[in-house]
Design goal:
This is Phosphoenolpyruvate synthase/pyruvate phosphate dikinase, C-terminal domain. This protein is mainly alpha-helical and 423 residues long. The chain is 58% helix and 4% strand. Strands 1-3-2 form a three-stranded antiparallel sheet.
Length: 423
């Protein structure tokens, strides 16, 4: 048997039996082609199991399209990330494959100068820019939440006439769907506004530490930087708070013994636990808009969230109640972790030459500042935005199916997003 001397070509991958013709499902720009073959075979491609470990429905293509375009634009034309333009994508047998696109070596010096000026502006104004970022991102989230998709009426309400609106419910559905898609493209632009320059600052500190302290572990560097008071931890904190409230209100046994969240909520509403259920419901939006898809959150439209599948967070609440009844501490040891962070930082700083300490301090301060966004953006974009987009997409599918667009609501996800517009 011949020994393989290279990775297989992307073009060597064949369709499994019964899946022939799968290419018809996906957009042309994601597919292999003879006109691309010579170029594609000179590049290293690998399956993107981080973001999309499973086969994608055609409708799900929008998710990887959004980050494909956003990453490339910010790396290439906005911040001029010195070594990299972005990442190219291909879909093979329904799986996403990616390949990095390096910048030409002769452009690195000029791109580095441009990057220093442009990223430097963001670093100097990071806190204010991030506050602006949260405002505009949440604004787009609220716009999408406000959309409503329902089957079109046989006869419009009289108010459509008397208000002189001049447009139909069908037009509103088209406008809202178009706007919903554009919002996701826009918020993935927001996603990369801060993400890669944030990583660049962290990796600069990381590289300094690896050079200054050859034996330092990756974990030790992360412990010097990691934030603690960030929104990413809020959903878990809310589960702990609900567990404590259940114990305080005498509901621990009933919550722990519940067979399902639905049965529990119905029982508590009529048996003295209504306030606890209402607390849960207030908390669920937005803190339980946590995507349950495998891989990177938000990658697939057919997985639910903690809010839509409350048995998932209820399981964690039960465990926290059990820990409380056992006398265990369930809160994050924030003070201890912060003290450890400063201890580790101080010990490594003492190992530096005196002239290197100011640079260490400056890089560490910036890395800590940007790392809050690196951690928090996941909940704003990958969880909240995509969970809402998928929920609204399902709402749209339930509106279109009764009107004959397709047989079952789930069929919509076998269409490309442009085909949904055509339906």
């Amino acid at each position: 048997m011949a020994t393989r001397t290279r990775f297989p070509s992307l073009y060597d991958v064949t369709a499994p039996e019964g899946a022939e013709g799968w290419e018809e499902l996906y957009n042309w720009y994601h597919l292999r082609g003879e006109e691309r073959r010579a170029s594609d075979e000179q590049r290293f491609w690998f399956q993107d199991r981080l973001h999309h470990p499973e086969v994608m429905h055609p409708y799900d293509e929008i998710q990887c399209e959004c980050w494909w375009q956003g990453l490339g634009a910010f790396n290439t034309r906005i911040f001029a990330m010195p070594p990299a333009y972005g990442i190219d994508q291909r879909v093979v047998n329904g799986y996403l494959y990616i390949s990095p696109i390096p910048a030409p070596p002769e452009d690195l010096e000029a791109r580095a100068a441009a990057f220093g000026e442009r990223a430097g502006h963001y670093y100097d104004n990071w806190d204010a820019i991030y506050e602006e970022w949260k405002v505009k991102t949440v604004d787009r989230l609220e716009q999408m939440k406000a959309m409503r998709f329902a089957p079109l009426p046989a006869l419009e309400e009289l108010e459509v006439v008397t208000s002189h609106r001049g447009s139909s419910s069908g037009y509103q559905m088209i406008e809202d769907y178009s706007r919903m898609v554009l919002i996701m493209y826009e918020t993935y632009q927001f996603h990369f506004e801060l993400l890669n320059i944030g990583y660049a600052a962290y990796l600069t500190f990381f590289a300094f530490c690896k050079q200054a302290f050859p034996d330092i572990s990756d974990q030790a560097i992360a412990r010097m930087v990691g934030g603690l008071h960030v929104d990413l931890y809020r959903p878990d904190d809310e589960l702990k708070r609900l567990a404590k409230a259940a114990v305080e209100q005498g509901l621990a046994d009933e919550v722990r013994g519940a067979e399902s969240a639905e049965a529990l909520f119905a029982s508590l509403r009529s048996n003295g636990g209504k306030a606890w259920v209402e607390d849960w419901e207030r908390t669920a939006d937005p803190w339980f808009l946590i995507d349950t898809a495998p891989g990177h959150p938000g990658g697939y439209g057919h997985y639910g969230t903690w809010a839509s599948e409350p048995d998932i967070p209820l399981g964690a609440v039960k465990e926290y109640i059990a820990a409380l009844l056992n006398g265990d501490e369930i809160d994050r040891p924030t003070a201890h972790v912060l003290a450890e962070r400063e201890r580790i930082t101080g010990e490594y700083r003492e190992l530096l030459a005196e002239e290197d300490a100011p640079a260490f301090d400056e890089m560490l301060a910036l890395a800590r500042k940007v790392f809050v966004y690196i951690e928090e953006h996941v909940i704003y974009i990958e969880h909240w935005m995509w969970a809402t987009f998928w929920a609204k997409s399902h709402e749209l599918s339930r509106a279109l199916a009764p009107m004959g667009a397709f047989d079952e609501p789930g069929d919509m996800f076998f269409l490309r997003r442009t085909e949904v517009m055509e339906s």
